[in-house]
């Protein structure tokens, strides 16, 4: 399973072409096993100004598996990752990012992203990043 971060979805829905949005388009076309985290779903959908764009994005995202990244177990795992990273001098800026990365690490899922905070999680905590 590949989770897709809001950093990629936002660029994708705004029509920005990046390596990650190209990969996402290919994965969607290929009907790859994609998932979106519940909090990423919220983060992405709340950003639309126009109802038409909101509904189009909602339709695209509804076709994917939604995974719950909240909950006690993942929250406690995320805290451990966060504390260890801070002890090494790294601060992950987004609560959602640390929860999503923790979920991916725990379940062995890859993450497609365009956010440097995840690079730290890959290097120091074993996060799998989708790069094809």
TrEMBL record:
Keyword Nuclease on entry: yes
Key words, A-Z: Hydrolase, Magnesium, Metal-binding, Nuclease, Toxin-antitoxin system
Lineage of origin: unclassified sequences, metagenomes, ecological metagenomes
GO molecular function, one term: hydrolase activity
Domain (PIN) ranges: 2-121
InterPro entries: PIN-like_dom_sf, PIN_dom, PINc/VapC_TA_RNase, VapC_family
PANTHER family: RIBONUCLEASE VAPC3
Protein name: PIN domain-containing protein
């Amino acid at each position: 399973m590949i989770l897709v971060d809001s950093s990629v979805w936002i660029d994708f829905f705004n029509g920005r072409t990046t390596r990650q949005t190209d990969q996402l388009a290919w994965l969607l076309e290929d009907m790859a096993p994609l998932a979106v985290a519940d909090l990423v779903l919220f983060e992405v959908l709340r950003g639309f100004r126009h109802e038409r764009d909101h509904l189009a994005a909602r339709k695209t995202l509804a076709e994917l598996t939604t995974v719950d990244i909240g909950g006690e177990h993942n929250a406690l795992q995320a805290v451990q990752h966060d504390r260890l990273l801070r002890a090494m001098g790294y601060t992950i800026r987004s609560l959602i990012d640390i929860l999503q990365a923790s979920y991916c690490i725990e379940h062995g899922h890859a993450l497609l992203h365009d956010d440097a905070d995840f690079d730290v999680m890959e290097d120091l905590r074993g996060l799998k990043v989708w790069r094809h």
